[in-house]
Structure formats: C-alpha cells, structure tokens
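Work Package 3 (structural annotation) set out to generate three-dimensional models for the target panel prioritized at the project kickoff. During this period the team completed the workflow that converts sequence records into discrete structure tokens, so that structures can be stored uniformly alongside our sequence database. As a representative example, we reproduce one entry of 390 residues exactly as it appears in the project archive.
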Amino acid sequence: MSANSSDRRLETAYQPLQFAYWVPNVSGGLVVSRIEQRTDWGYDYNRTLARLAENNGFDYALSQVRYTASYGAAYQHESTSFSLALLLATERLKVIAAVHPGLWHPGVLAKFLATADHLSGGRAAVNVVSGWFKDEFTKLGEPWLEHDERYRRAEEFITYLRRIWTDDHADLAGDFYRLHDFDLKPKPLDLPGRPHPEIFQGGNSTAARAMAGRVSDWYFSNGRDFDGISEQVSDVLTEAALHDRTVKFGLNGFLIGRDTESEARDVLREIVDKADREAVEGFGSAVKQAGSSTSDGKGMWQDSEFADLVQYNDGFRTGLIGTPEQIAERIVAYKTRGVNLLLLGFLHYHEDVAYFGEKILPIVRDLENDLAVSGRLESELARHGVLAAR
C-alpha cells in the first residue's frame, strides 16, 4: 500500500464509526424463523423506525431489493421509492437504495437519484447489487448472467453512474449500456466529502473485491469474524491502491443486546431452534449455487452453515451478541481491522434500536476515544495490515 493510501486510510479510520440498519421493507423480518419478530414491513412502522434510528446514532438506512416472493419474504416494497419516502420523513438519515443492474438503466437511475438527492438535501445513496436470485430476472423476462459477468455489468453500471453525475455530455459505449451525448440536469448536490451520491456495493467473491477497489465508494461484506473481514479489507485495498483510490468498508451484523450474555445467547438459540427449515434450506441452495458459479469457486455464502443462513446475510457470524460492553468491545475491535460502518439487523427493531442508542453506542464512543487518545489505533491498524507500518 502506498504512503498516500495509508494516509487516506488513517484519516478515515480516525473518523467515528458509522452505523446503518437494514430497512424491513420486506415481510418476514431479518431472520428466517418462526420466532416472534416485533417488526413490520409497512410504511408507518418504517417511518417511525427511521426517525427513531436517526435519534439513536444511526447514519444510514439500507432499503432491501426484492422483486418477487422468496424464502420467507412474501411481500416487498420497492427499494427506491421506499427510500425516497424515508428520506422525506427524516432530517439527517442517509438512505441507501439497493438496485439491480440489468433491471435498471444507469441513466434512468442516475436521474431518479439526482432528484432524490435534491429533495433530501444530499442524503441519497445507492447500493449496486449484482444479484443472486435467478427468478427475479427470468420471471421478468430478463437474461440471467453467470456470476463474473454479473459483476462486469455492475462495474460498468457504476462507471456510467459516475460519468453521468460528473460529465456534461456523457458518451459511452460499453458491453452492457450505451450513452449518446447524455447531459443530466440537474446534477446531484456537490457536498463536502461526496461530489455525488455515495455508491455502495456488496459481495464477497474475488470479482466483487476487485470491482470495489476499482469503482466503489463502499464495500459491504456479509457477516464475518475478524480473520474473514481482514482478508477482504486487504484484497480490496490492494486493488484500490493500484488505481490510487481508497474504499470504505461496511460489515453486516445481526445484533442481539441484552443485559446479560445468557439472555442474549438464549435469544439466538431460540431463533435458530425455530428456524423455518424449508425456507432456510431453499435459500441456502439458491445462494450457494449462485456463489459456486464464480470463476474460482469463491463466493458469498459458500462456507455458510444452516445456522448462519437463518440470518440471510450471515449476520450471526459477526458475533454482536451479548451485553452492551461485550458488543461495544467487539464493534471497536472491528474498527481496528478497517471497518468503517456496521450494517445492523435486529429482532424487534423499535426496542432494539433504542437499546443500541442508549446502552451500546455510548460505550463504543468511549472506547473509540480511548483508542485515539492512547495512539493505539494507528498501531492496531498497522498490525492488522490496514496501514503500511511506519
């Protein structure tokens, strides 16, 4: 990693950790289980949740994208319109709309997001998802590409979004999309730290990591332990340095915070014991097939076991389960591995988001401050390979 890249990474690392939550705009909650989940996919519930979240330390919300019923998710609200509604219902929260290339043209999405950005005062963002669910494409009559081709298309999609938002006369001819002297007006708001809406992407595969290093602002990882996230951070940063870029990192985690560790563990045990086995196994089969089609056999969910798949983005594997102190310590330990944002899911959203803001976040901030004041943050980042040793 170059000195300039290390300097940029260090500057980013000293910023406070940011937090996002999965918007439950899809029915069934965030675990594929018959356990009670006091959450709802409707707008009224989500409007209240968004306001609660921005007052309890959350910076972002991520609206899920599903186009058809699948694996416990019988009903779905469309992600971009739902995100805009949440933006207009809040004052500070940034809302990330997940979208599928192949079902959107980048010019049409660029126009939608530019308008959403103006309406919200610069709080719109996008998560470009290459897609894992074949039925979403084929049932709409769209072609289903193999894994690495889906990422090639997603990379071109992101490249076009940036060009449309920054050039007055975008003219591009790629393998998947075309632009002919396309002049978008108005452009998105040009704000300090972000010249246009932030671009997130997900994925764990080799193709996803390389793509993030080349074109994305943020890389979302499925749930991972310390070694798992360190490997991905290293790979993405290595690619980014080749292009004189840096990338921020988000990590998925399902958070179960209770006053005692035994209470939290009991909740996890009940979630898994009451799992909808048929739905979990169907989901596991679909996503492992999608991941196994990578050129090198590495992909999302390839090493996920049944219990991991009950939370469909491997959120249990991040280990955010226990007392406020235990969870806060683990969150800050992820910061020393290069994580900049935690993307969180909950069982009972309203109650658990308030619990996070009241009992967990203050401890996180104290621990972050201790790391910075003591000078240990830089040495820890270097020890974990996030920075070049000085």
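The chain has 14 helices and twelve strands.
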